[in-house]
Amino acid sequence: MIIGIDIGSTTTKAVSIEDGRVIKKIKTRAIDAVTSATGAFGKMMLENNIEMRCIDRIMITGAGASKIKSNIFGIPTSKIDEFTAIGIGGMFQAERENVIITNIGTGTVLIEAKKEKISHIGGSGVGGGTILGLSKKLLQSTTFNDIMEMAGEGSLSQVDLLLEDIIDTELSFLARDATAANFGKMLDSAKKEDIALAIINMVYQVIGMLSVFAARSKNSSSVLVTGSGSDNQIGKNTLREISNMYEINFEFPPDADYTTAIGAGLSA
Q: Does the pTM exceed 0.85?
């Protein structure tokens, strides 16, 4: 059995893999990389009644992997770079060996994964960290649950400048309610709920358009969305709107936030 661990900046994910299949998945949070890695491993073992002798290797990746300098609990422990782990995990999730991957975490990374080569296309500092940072300053809220709850009651028309605000007809394939400028209107009547929705919408519009550019540059008609930000329902809706406009299909695989940990485990 192989344990794959993705040590992120906020959350650590771990999976157990046997015969090329994902058996178990867990998440933990901790203040430092060593605590995250050992905690995730321990939780995996205890919650699933796995004996130490059953583990052949631990594969680690992610932002905190460089902090792990030795084997974990005496079990052979190896590192794999995060881009490669995302690529391997993405191909496993997509069940094909040629895929464009948008991995949304604190920031966003774009990967082209093929059987013969995994390439870093590019990325952006815009991601989940952007939502939290702007919400802390503008909304005095620092938890995703609170932000999502507020956003669910919001209206973009109070914050964003829409095409219908500046033109009377549709522009090419763009609908009249398409965004002309994020935060370009910002009415005095805008409430926290409206601002919360506008923050999430802006972040996912940026991610969505970067994904469209990446897919088109590689002659692909689809993008696999992975990472902790892949399960944001408002973000998904924004990406689907972009999909309809630009005819790029966004795929949301099950357990997408475990993709990098899966890739680490499968790389052994």
A: yes
